[in-house]
Each structure stands twice: as C-alpha cells, then as structure tokens.
Design goal:
Length: about 450
C-alpha cells in the first residue's frame, strides 16, 4: 500500500481519481488547492502525487517544482485538459514521471499509478546472515538473489559496467529489467550522474518524439540532455513507432561516431540501455522493428529470467519486500510461517517480481500478531498447490477457504460428469461403474428420477 496525494480543483474529478487509487489498495489524500497540496506534501511525504496543471491558486508546475526540490523521492503524474507538448516536456523536465490528458480512462490512470510506484521503488542494499543479497553498489539499488542465473547476470554487469556499449535487456514484464539497468549504472563510473527512464508505451508519439529529440520549436531539454554523463533506459522499446526507430538509430549512430573521434558534446554523453518484454528478433522478423536499430542497441544482450525459473530467490525477495515495508511504515518485520513460505515457493508468479512485491504488501496489511499465514496471501497464491504422488509432482488448483462439503459435492459432480462422458451418456453404465444405485446417481447429479425407475432400482 502506497501513500498517494491527489490535487485537483474540480471536485468531481478529484473524487473520481481518489476513489480509483483507493480501489487499488492505496492510502489516498485528496485536496483542491496548490497551497493545501504543498502542505500535504510536507506532512505525509507521499510515494506518488497526481496534480492538475491548473488548480486555481497555483500552477501545477510550481507544485511539481516544489516537490522535486523538497521531496525528490515522490513520483509525480500531471493531469490536465490544457495539454501541449511544451507543457508536458516542462513537467517531465521538472521530474514528472508521466502526463495524462483529460478526459482519460480510469484504467490508464491506474496503470500509470502502478508504473509510477514501480519507478519510484528504490530498494536499499541489504545485509545480514539470514538475508543474502548480491549488491552491485552499496546503499543503492541492489540485485537480490543467489540463483545461478542472477549470479551470472551480476558477473556480466561487473564486466561491462564501465563500457559505453549499448545494452539490450529482454525478459517478461516485471522480471526486474529496470533493476538490472540501475545496477549497471550504479556499478559504472557514471554512478554519480543521472539515471533517466522513458517508457515508449506511456506517451503519445508526438510527446515521445519531443522527449527523445526535442520539440518542433527546438526548445526544451531531451531525456539525453537531462541524463548527461549518466544513463538512459528506454523501456518497452518494441513499442517505439517505426518512424521514431529510424530517428533513434541515426541519433545513436551520431553518438557513437562523435565518441570515436572524441568530439562528443556533454549533453550527448550517455550510456544507452533498452529493454523489451518481447523478443526483438521476433519483432524484426515480423516487420515491426528495424533491423539496423536492433543491431545498434543489442551489442550486449542480457536475458533477465522470470521469477518462476529461480525459485530459490523467492524467499530472499519476499524478505526484502517485508523489510522495505517495515522501514516505510515504521513497523516490525513480520515473520512468514512455514506453510505460507511453501505456498510462495510453489506459485508460478506470472507477474514476476512485481506480483511478489504486491503479494507481500497485501500480506503485511492482513497479518496479525506479526505473523504472515496462508490466509494473508492472495487467493491465487493459496489455491495453487503442488502435490507429490509416486515421486511425481503435480500442480492442483484448490479453492482453499471453501467449506469441505461444498468442495466434495463439486468434485463428485465433476467426476460423475466425466464418467458419463466415458460411458457415452449411459446413466445405467455410469451408476454401475461408480458402484452406486441409479437413484443415488440422479440425486448427486441434482436430477429427478421417474417413480417407476426409482421402484425398479
């Protein structure tokens, strides 16, 4: 659960956005003026702020500027009905994570909020005998895990950290690609310079073009100039429009050429990293991604594994998220009982590290007496059970929390239905095979039996 501040002078819109964030499980504070917003910023120190451009007593950009100066850890989303590329670029230059134009769909707001909170996640390096972590940089973002795949990635990072060669990170959504990119940055000589992230799917094409290459008026900074001396991560690059792919290839070629002859301006001196949730080679073959750009950005490819392929890291990551939550809320780190641990390790985590983090936040909210039990975990985690039979493991979805009689009744109906199919729909053969009377079969199926058939049985 995150702390979110919403600022908008339109009461209806304010209420709608606040309700939407509350439905996501967050703690929401809603105010209708810039002055009240700044006061709330100082009091609650939110994880994320949503602010309108025009809020009556103040310009939203001024609120963003104040937030960036006094609360740099707060992620910012600007919302306005008076959007322009120049305004959006200025908001992002001041530190805004994203920009939404009214009217917008609530699903877009919710998605942007979650992405903003993920962007603001900055796990600290951890230590301790019971909490093993492999840290790339002390007191910065850390790669957590002891699995062979994570150790291999760490070795690669150490080798290529100080290189200027482009890196391509591929892996499922939520697998930790941004953390790998941050670790590369933190391990390099660029660690004290900015690390900037731009999502290709989060902005319309004209705004994305302005962020990458400048506005049509030639004014405003780009993500490359704001990251001068540091690192730029272009996320979801497979979503970059073809027209901009051509411009990006030319821009990166220019960086490489000028670096070769030692004529690279400071504003272009960046390490470029791209990430994709889809294999880019497949996108190239499908005609959706330029082959020349693919070869330009994939000099150093790194495959980031999904969480299900490194089950030995689940307990470490869960412990890390619990400690992170305890530090943020000022509470004691809860203990996870052995049955809950077994369920965490047996679940496939289709949402990867992000899903695990959300599950642990939920568990903290429901835990009692400082102990996390299976009932505190999301239902989709507890209902997936791995059972060993004759030395073979099989996975079953069990509706834990449902009464035994209801479960048995449903299983009986399912078994009877499948046996009926096997016998070509013959109820007599099915009853005989199951060893029950025809009357019992009808009763368990919830059907009525004619009186003469009942008598005959």
């Amino acid at each position: 659960m995150a702390r979110i501040l919403v600022i908008d002078d339109e009461a209806a819109i304010l209420k709608l956005m606040a309700k939407s964030c509350s439905q996501q499980g967050h703690d929401v504070t809603a105010v209708q003026s810039g002055k009240a917003g700044i006061q709330a910023l100082d009091e609650i120190r939110p994880d994320l702020m949503i602010v309108d451009l025009l809020i009556g007593d103040m310009n939203g950009l001024d609120v963003i500027r104040y937030s960036n100066e006094h609360h740099p850890a707060t992620q910012v989303i600007m919302v306005t009905g008076n959007g322009s590329i120049e305004t959006a670029v200025e908001a992002m230059r001041l530190g805004a994570f994203d920009y939404l134009t009214k009217p917008f769909e609530l699903v877009d707001l919710q998605r942007t909020v979650e992405l903003g909170l993920q962007q603001g996640s900055n796990p600290a390096a951890v230590s301790g005998e019971s909490f093993k972590a492999f840290a790339i940089a002390q007191n910065t973002v850390s790669m957590i895990g002891e699995s062979p795949k994570i150790q291999e990635i760490l070795k690669i990072i150490q080798k290529i950290a100080d290189s200027d060669s482009p890196v391509l990170l591929e892996g499922e959504f939520g697998s930790g690609k941004q953390m790998v990119a941050r670790s590369i940055h933190n391990a390099s000589h660029r660690t004290h310079a900015p690390f900037k992230v731009l999502q290709c799917s989060a902005l319309p094409e004209d705004l994305l073009e302005a962020e990458l290459f400048g506005s049509t008026t030639g004014r405003g900074e780009t993500i490359f100039s704001r990251a001068a001396g540091g690192t730029v991560l272009l996320e979801e690059i497979h979503m970059l429009p073809i027209r901009l792919q051509s411009k990006l290839e030319s821009y990166l070629d220019g960086i490489n050429s000028r670096r070769t002859i030692n004529d690279l301006p400071v504003k272009m001196d960046v390490r470029f990293i791209a990430s994709s949730a889809k294999p880019l080679q497949e996108c190239v073959e499908a005609g959706n991604f330029r082959e020349d750009l693919y070869y330009r950005i994939s000099v150093i490819p790194i495959e980031v594994p999904p969480l299900r392929s490194r089950a030995e890291d689940i307990e470490l990551l869960a412990d890390h998220f619990l400690r992170q939550h305890a530090e943020r809320t000022g509470t004691r780190v809860p203990e996870v009982d052995k049955y809950a641990k077994r369920l965490l390790e047996g679940y496939s985590w289709p949402g990867n590290v992000g899903e695990l983090q959300n599950a642990m936040e939920r568990a903290c909210a429901f835990a009692e007496a400082g102990r996390i039990r299976p009932v505190d975990l999301p239902p989709k985690v507890t209902q997936r059970v791995e059972i060993t039979d004759d030395d073979e493991k099989t996975t079953h979805h069990l509706p834990i929390g449902v009464g035994l009689s209801d479960f048995v009744r449903k299983q009986e109906k399912m078994f009877i239905r499948e046996t009926l199919k096997y016998n070509g729909g013959s109820r007599e053969k099915t009853a005989s095979m199951l060893g029950v009377s025809i009357a019992t079969l009808y009763r368990k199926m919830g059907l009525k039996l004619e009186k003469d058939k009942m008598m005959a049985s």
